[in-house]
Amino acid sequence: MTVEEGSASSPPGPAERAAAPLHLRPATAADIPSLVPLLLRLKRLNEEFDPLLRVRDDAPQQARAILESQIADPKALVLAAEGVGPDRDKLVGFVRAIVRERPFYTPEFEGVIVDIYLLPLYRRRGVGEYLLREVSSALKAKGAGVVTAEFPAQNEIASRFYAKRGFRPITLIHARSL
Amino acid sequence: MAESSSSPGPPSRLGRRSRPRSPEAVAERRRSSRTEALGRRALELSRFYGGKIETVPKVPVRSLRDFSLWYTPGVAEVSRAIHAHPDLSFDVTGRWNTVAIVTDGSRLLGLGDMGPEAALPVMEGKALLFKFLGGVDAFPLPIRAPTPAEFLQTAEAIAPAVGGINLEDIASPKCFGLLEELTRRLEIPVWHDDQLGTAAATVAGLLNALRLTHRSVGEARTVLLGAGAANLATARLLLALGHDPHRLTLVDQRGVLHAERDDVDELMVRNPWKYRLALRTNGGGRTGDLVRAAEGADVLVAASTPVPGTVRPEHLRAMARDPIVFALANPVPEIWPDVARSAGAAIVATGRSDFPNQVNNSLVFPAVFRGVLDARARAIPEEVVLVAARALAAGAERRGLGPSHLLPTMEEPEVFPEIAAAVADESVRLGIARLRLSHDEFLERARALMGRPLRLVRALARAHLTPPMPRGPGRPRKAA
């Protein structure tokens, strides 16, 4: 995820929210051509953090297929971030999340934020806060009792972003090439 | 440059061309064989002299008995005094006038990563310049520090011995973080010449060039070609001087730097300094190559690839009237001055001493260090760098500002103590000076200290303490 750390740590009020340079709404199939490049940007960013996150050549096709299926899937959540004002018709970011069952633990359902991406000029200014709030309530509406976020272990910016908003590591994934 | 692969390169590659080969390009072939000859001679002389600098006593030694003053037991009292008041080290040792030239050799000249040993002759040469131009005692200190953490730790560890640190020939973007972090950690001035020295000289030249063409920084549209240490620092200084970020565009091998370029997230991770400029600059969202960036620009500063043809006449023709072109790559500029002028450039500067308007960090670093050392400053903030740039620009007026005299040359030594005094004054004003003297006192001090080395080297030569240079072979010797 690349929501760069914002300067404001307190939750933004309605005024700030109105000032956010974007608007979040559920994505539709028509958004897919604009969403694919954004998703690929995020995966290429992840590539920076670990050689085991090298982006596949067929990533664009994969991105399209996954977006198509998840936009239609009630257990998944794809939100598109639209610009405002002159950027009204432009997608400037997106959030992708899934609701996953936890067979051994409670809460029983976990909302996993797998991707958050915003174009650089739309970061900061409390936008990350807004995105997180919107996606959390959408996941809650889908039955999730806990919200988690996946990102590369070396991504300190993401780490700080979530830590500041009350997230803590609960599961670590360690990897080794075979 | 991305576009240079698919477009005309240096004229020589194109063989027959309707346009005659630039006389400067022809002259350059002569120069490059001269450069080879200079290299052979430098190696020979370095062997003959066994390096370029040595330490010399500055106190009388009448007999060995004097060592009871200069060394034990007398020196113990000096140590006790410093122990009680650490800043006394600036009064009773040579610390007030001593600088460490620290490098990891990771970007030596234009040679790339050469390692610390290979950096030593360059740092010795730099130390000689420090002494000769600034009256500063500088230690060449190439260190084996493969990681930034090791570099920081080492630089921090040697700081008690010196009054300042000059970082040199360190790869970008590593150099940005090192400078920032050392400035934060240390209570002595830290400078990275490849960023600040070059940028201050560039900005000084630009201030005068803008003035000569009746423009102002606030209204200028500027393109910086190359986004390494020098141009990123130049961008920051220009913005600090009030340049409109929207009218500033950076261009590198991948074209115009902008907030939605494909590699912008990679920059966020690997080069946040460049990332921040990608977000701030290039209002109107230009994309594409240098031609697009240059459209309507008043100023083009190239600090990129030492290949003539990197900047081409068509780039200049896309610019506004009376364009200002700084082609700063060394040893060869991105465009020859005669080519630039025939393409309409009103003012041309390069990094070389054999053309008018040399933009060179030697115009800056000796005076800046003279100034911060004389004020015993704790740092070199941006304000001080800007004061140095302005003082250098003002210095050009002493012998008449003009399109071929944008900046003072090294042959105008009267200018440099004035820059030093301006730097010292600014350190006092900012409250970072340990020693607060008046302008006249700083100026007198700088004149005395900067004037002394020439007398010193002459005296050493007269006394035959520096052996005369052995005669060169004239022609290169054939291999045996």
Describe this structure in words.
The complex is a heterodimer of chains A (178) and B (480). With 178 residues, chain A is of the alpha+beta class. Helix content of chain A is 34%, strand content 21%. Chain A has helices at residues 14-19, 32-47, 59-72, 127-141, 156-164, and strands spanning 22-26, 76-83, 91-101, 109-118, 146-149. Chain A has a five-stranded mixed sheet with strand order 1-2-3-4-5, sandwiched between helices. The longest helix of chain A has 16 residues, at 32-47. Chain B folds into three domains: 55-196, Malic enzyme, N-terminal domain (Rossmann fold, 3-Layer(aba) Sandwich), CATH 3.40.50; 214-345, Rossmann fold (3-Layer(aba) Sandwich), CATH 3.40.50.720; 361-462, Rossmann fold. Helices cover 45% and strands 9% of the residues of chain B. Chain B contains 18 helices and ten strands. In chain B, helix 5 packs across helix 18 (439-462), helix 6 runs parallel beside helix 7 (174-185) and helix 8 crosses helix 9. Mean pLDDT of chain B is 92; it is low at 1-18. The A-B interface holds A 2, 4, 41-42, 44-45, 48-49, 119-121, 157 and B 259-260, 262, 264-266, 268-270, 275, 278-279.
Could you list some keywords that capture this structure?
heterodimer, A: 178 residues, alpha+beta, Aminopeptidase, B: 480 residues, alpha/beta, Rossmann fold, 3 domains, 18 helices, 10 strands, globular
